Amino acid sequence: MLTSFKNKKISAVYSVLPTHEVDFMDEAGNYSFSEVQMKKLKRVMGFGTRRVAVEGETVGDYAIYGIRQMLQDGIFKEDEIGAIIVTTTSPDHFIPPISNIVQGKFDFDEDVVCLDISQGCCGYTVGLTYSFMTLETMRNKKVLLIAGDMLTFRVSKRDRASRPITGDAVTISVIENCDVENTIWCSLKNDGKDAFAVYIPAGGTRMPITPETTKEEEDEFGNWRGNQHLMMQGDLVFNIIINMTPVMMEELLEKSGDKMDEIDYFVCHQSSSFTLKKLSQRLGVTDQKLFNDIVPKYGNSSSATIPVTLCEHHNEMFADGKRKKVMFAAFGTGMSLGAVLMDMDAPTCQFLNYPHQS
Amino acid sequence: MKEQIIKILTELRPEFDFTQENMNFIEEGMLDSFDIVTLVDEIENTMGVAISGMDVLPENFCSIDAICQTIEKNRK
Asked: A32, A183, A260, A295: least CB-packed within 10 angstroms?
């Protein structure tokens, strides 16, 4: 789908991160890497520190904490919200949806639209597009877009491909209509033939959780996983990303009539340092325009990485007080890809550390 | 160039002999995907050539000759 919207903005972004931090070098015993390999991978892949939730904490917990803080900060009022949209692959429960749990925790109207979308790394661009679509029918309301994941506990401790980069985070964005003239371009693409390139076999109706699904086995590369764990065909995923993402971004530019060098910032899903380096080389843009520093600092938190990047860099992005032309681009489970091109004024951005109970 | 590549590979995986002829590094289990991304990074840093992401495929790094061809292709 390639479409456009008019006169909408992202007015605020809050990122709620676990306070608990884990360092790749402290987990060396879990992986079959030599010391030389570890040092090189730390630099090349961005295996550094990552924020990790405490087992039992949920996306809903973090979202409620963040929304409570946003209300206290006067970012929005409860009666201004027309829809709560959640994008995650880590639901609190099968039933009920997180959006309904969140709606019930505050004094939101009963006619607020609640929608959970099962999307991983591409979730923010998908969620933004659905938020803009929803706002077309709600002129005087705002959308709360909750994008986040808690996948640490779905990745095996001995999975050297995914564990060293997996972080947890939940973000809340306020999306609304505005009077300032702008056109927003959105592109969503899917490649369902490769749907199982990123996969958790057990836990759904196809393969219910049993004692058998907890058993871990070693693969040919030295990764230990059970059927309850995330499994990723890294080579295939990398090739889909590197082949399809630039094409999608160029298509969007063609539609909008903008040129690559007219884009002020590319805020992309932070998958790994290597993937982002290859993407920026392919697009011919620098690290100053395409940020590549979130994975080594916070980890890859799936649908949360784009808003986390906004929170990390909004001061420098909007230092001169001028509007910026920003392209968001994401890729991940599904396989899904999404891009959003929009002119942005500085949103209110804030990091919050989640206060763990234990 | 071959000596330089062998030096990088040997530093990366000292337990293997990369000088043997007719060896497929991938099929023999001498290099995995993490070794390939590390190798790409080392080549870029030491040989001043950027390897396109579309060329980061196992078949392009399965032998010394394949690696040399990949470097030459990306120099053009």
From this structure: A32
